[in-house]
Amino acid sequence: MSIARFSPFELLLLKSRSQVDTATLLLLAWVLVHRQHVSEGQRRRRLAQVTAQFRHGHELGPVMGIAHSQDLQAIQLAAEVVRKECSKERSLSIIHQAITVATDDGEISLANHYILRFLADLLNVTPATLSTLFQELTGKPLLPPEDPSRDTYWQQHDPEYHARQAQEAQAAERQAKEAQAKAEQRQQAKTDKQQQKQQEKQRQQEQARNAKARAQREKEQRHREKAQQEKARREQAQQERASRERWQQEQARQEESRRQQRQRSSSPPPPDRKTRALAVLGLTPGASRTDVRQAYRRMAQLHHPDRFYSESDHQVALASARFQRIKSAYDYLMQTY
To answer: Which domains does the chain have, with CATH numbers?
Structure first.
């Protein structure tokens, strides 16, 4: 299978010495990229510290890149690998590491609030256990995260929220008016072009009718030509079958004649038969077995009856007789060598 079918994270898993460590590495990197007020270099150094004992065997850069891209399919795959392979002790260790990298500066981002709860649920760690671990590691309770869908959240964290909302509303109103004006212009243009479109449609219909008529005539012509070609092929095939049948019959008669001759006489061939057989193949005494085989192939190609199927029956019969003499000479010589 081509590697182009795999995603970057799937390729990392395939090359990893420990798929569980690679999956855990991505989940911890996912937590780190949601840390606020932290540089990329600090994130990578912190990830290297936390995962120093991991056995994944690859660089951290590609993992951080996948985490930054928010590739949810890769994160989901990592979660499935971790959930399938981790024991209870390993699950608690992963939660411990996630809390550590999420709260190094004493604060936890809103995104990491939800990520920690997602990881705990994934690894079958109860909310109570998660809160206890968080309290032990940070000295602070894990409070419920604020809801960013409420106006009060943005009023507290973004004082310019309402001003921005008003500006966005005004911009939306202007866009709606502009869209309405453009729609009216498009409608007017559509009305102006209706007659032109109708005329164009009529012209195209006429062209389609003409094209259909031409196509029908061409189809009929092709059909006639195909029928003629098929008839010619059938006639040629019949001729070829008749030629093959005549050749086979001749071969059968000659084989029967040879069989009867062998039955009538068991005396050894005359002393000079080998010389005559070599002469039939165009060879002189002293030719090797390889020479006999090559000469037979050459003569068989030249005098095979199939090469004369288009000639008269007499020509085909002569070709069959020549080929039989060549075949008999070859068979005899192959027995004597």
So the answer is: 3-145 (no CATH), 244-263+272-336 (1.10.287.110)
